[in-house]
Give the backbone structure.
Amino acid sequence: MKIDISDILDDWPYEPGQITVRRIRGEDGRDKIQFRLDLGMLQMEVTGRPDGERPYSYESLLAYYQAQLKRYRDNDNEQDFKLDEQACERLRAEGLMYYHRYLAAFILEDYDIVEADTARSLEMMDLCSRHAVEESDKFVVEHYRPYVLMMRARARARMALADNRPKAALSAVQEAIADVTACFQRMGEGERASQSMELATLQALAAEIEARVPVDPVTRLRKQLATALEEERYEDAAAIRDQLRRVSPDSTDQPATKPDETDQQ
């Protein structure tokens, strides 16, 4: 068995400042995702836990603790389920594996993997936030929530756009903007929200998508009418109002002229 991986690394140079990933077929016949690092690389399973392990015979450590929680709920004593510092630390370490995978998958445009892994990360955060013994463990995971929400929304938006559903894409991003904003407010960091990378990224994506969303004729004509009135182009406004009447008889709720200038038109 060859232990030294120098040949592999020499054939796949590390590029500082860039995220370099690839998807390969493993010797076991299953696909793997490889993530190039400065001192080596990570290799991850495409499905299940990224390292291929099954803690306590469960798909993941999160799945194990979720099963434990269900047992408590079934016995009507959910309030007794607690996650100590060690449990939270192990869950965060496992979450880091999924972070590397969904980041690599996003670069590879495997957005279904991104959506699944970010959804799983949010479940982990919910579990720790509700059941961690130490407040510090709750705070740590909540601090990462805006980023995970952003990545999930980006994946959902890209999948919707690939299916030619720009409205669904925009809805996913707008929902994430609201969720991220609420998250910062819960953490008492509402002022920092406006400067956050997550919101800036989502708002830029929303603007990109909005340009691809077809504008219905009534909305378009309403905007044109408002602009014409603001610029005092009353003849144009009257013509636009007539178009609105033809398209939607109930949509002409703006006058085409100023009330005190009617006689001048």
About this structure: The first strand starts at residue 20 and ends at 25. Residues 47-210 form one domain.
